[in-house]
Amino acid sequence: MPWSPSDVTQLISYWLQGLPAQAISKKLEGKSRNAVLSKAKRIGIYNTKVRSITAPARVGQAQFRREVLSAYANRCAVTGSEQIEILEAAHIVPHSVGKDNDLNNGICLRSDIHSLFDCGLLSISENYTILIAHSVTDEYYTGLADLPLSMPVSAYNKPNPTSIAWHRQNVFRT
Fold first, then answer.
1. Cys-Cys link to 112, which of 5, 14, 40, 91 (CB 3.0-4.6 A)?
2. In this structure, what is the dihedral angle of CA atoms 63, 15, 24, 52, given to the nearest 10 degrees?
3. What long-range pairs does 126-133 form, CB within 8 A, spacing at least 24?
């Protein structure tokens, strides 16, 4: 059974919470323990240090999401997906670091792409093309490397180059 973006997002979340592969396979019905381990290796999280990624709702987060999704015409900037239920507003410089809900510090990403972005397995070059960490071997994700990032409808809302550089230097795992 193929992995959906939602499956990948859940796998990353459960993995980073420290759940063992067997427990994850039970939560992801239809995925065996070996499939979970294989996917974790292919998307580059197998050797990732465990941490909790549960965060409390932040003031302004709902408005930030509305503004970012609207700026990108409800399309993932990496995949072009228009499935609104799995689109998220990603902070380029994490809110925990910069407390910045400015539209230029946001990018519309599909949930699995957002997880990879936050884990440092995907970033954006100075030329606004997709960068994929060397540890990622999953063919779908490696196939995104060097593709151009889709920009917001208005050039005024383009991601801040300083924020993009910060993400590459502080989060991305080349």
1. 5
2. -60
3. 126/161, 126/164, 126/165, 128/159, 128/164, 130/78, 131/168, 131/172, 131/174, 133/44, 133/172, 133/173, 133/174
pTM, rounded to two decimals: 0.75
Distances (CA, A) of 115 to 119, 121, 154, 155: 6, 9, 25, 25
Q: Which 8-state DSSP code applies to residue 130? A: E
Give the whole-angstrom CA distance, residue 74 versus residue 107: 11
Q: Which pLDDT tens digit goes with each residue over 79-101?
A: 999 998 889 999 999 877 766 68
For the stretch 105-137, pLDDT in tens is 999 999 999 999 999 999 999 999 999 999 999
CA-nearest of 58, 14, 51 to 36 is 14
φ/ψ (deg, to 5) at 155? -60, -25
Give me the residue label for tokens 């060397």.
Answer: 134
First-to-final CA distance of the chain? 30
Alpha carbons 15 and 49: distance in angstroms, whole number: 9
Q: Which of 97, 104, 98 is nearest to 89 (CA)?
A: 104
